[in-house]
Amino acid sequence: MRPNWILIAALSVVALALGIKSCHDQNRARTLLRVNAGLIRENQELKDRLTLSNRTTQQIVDRKDMQSQMQATFVDRREYFRRNWKQYITLHTGDYKTGFLGGIRNLDITLRNQTEYPLDNAVVVVEYLRGNGSVFKSEPYTIHNIPEKGTRTIQASNSRKGTKVNIRLVSVTSQPMNFCWSADKRVMPGDEDPWACVPKAKPADTLR
């Protein structure tokens, strides 16, 4: 009986040792799983932050590209309207009245601005003509602050003589459009943008 008791005691000790080791291994495995899960979560968070950072960087680059394109378009549009201003800036008269023996009354002058930029001012000359076409008198008028895509109307003075009128533009200026047109301004040959108030800066000559 004594040897059996020793054997049983030895087996119990071994079983206890194995149980303790198994419990320790399980705890260690759970700890490793928690650590691995934490590392996976941290890696995913880092990946998400990198993705967000890359998106933000790309958005900044795209925004700068868009701003550059808009700036280039802005400059090009100004030059386009300067070159083709006669299609967009026009002068008109209203239905004025003439007397039985001549004379002009209720003469309205309207400047229409169909560009995308306001005009600072426009100088207009009104010529009152006799029946034979000769000029009885001429008067200058300045029209101020003509809005973009808009009009501005002024009233000219009456004339005791004349059967009709002739109106013409003398000058137009617009700082927002960098536009300075004048009827007596001399255009240099080869100048593709002669009505710019401030001409484009020419590139420096290449050093030889």
How does the SSE layout of this entry go?
Blueprint: H1 2-83, E1 89-93, E2 97-98, E3 104-105, E4 108-113, E5 119-129, E6 135-146, E7 150-155, E8 164-174, E9 179-182
Antiparallel strand pairs: 1-4, 2-3, 4-7, 5-6, 5-8, 8-9
Q: Regions with pLDDT < 50 over 5+ consecutive residues?
A: none
CATH homologous superfamily descriptor of the largest domain: Immunoglobulins
Termini Cα gap: 115 Å
| Proportion in β-strands | 25-35%
C-alpha geometry: rod-shaped
What is the H-and-E element order? HEEEEEEEEE
Please tell me the total number of domains: 2
Number of helical runs? Answer: 1
Report the count of strand segments. Answer: 9
Mean pLDDT value: 82
What is the spatial order of strands in the main beta sheet?
A: 6-5-8-9
Assigned CATH architecture of the largest domain: Sandwich
Query: Would you give the CATH topology of the largest domain?
Result: Immunoglobulin-like
Structural class: alpha+beta
Question: How much is the radius of gyration in Å?
Answer: 44 Å
Q: How would you describe what is shown here?
A:
It is a single chain. By secondary structure, the protein is of the alpha+beta class. The chain folds into two domains: 1-83; 86-182, Sandwich (Immunoglobulin-like). Helix content is 39%, strand content 28%. It contains one helix and nine strands, in the order H-E-E-E-E-E-E-E-E-E. It has one helix at residues 2-83; strands spanning 89-93, 97-98, 104-105, 108-113, 119-129, 135-146, 150-155, 164-174, 179-182. It has a four-stranded antiparallel β-sheet, with no helix packed on it. Strands 1-4-7 form a three-stranded antiparallel β-sheet, with no helix packed on it. A hairpin with a 4-residue loop joins strand 8 and strand 9 (179-182).
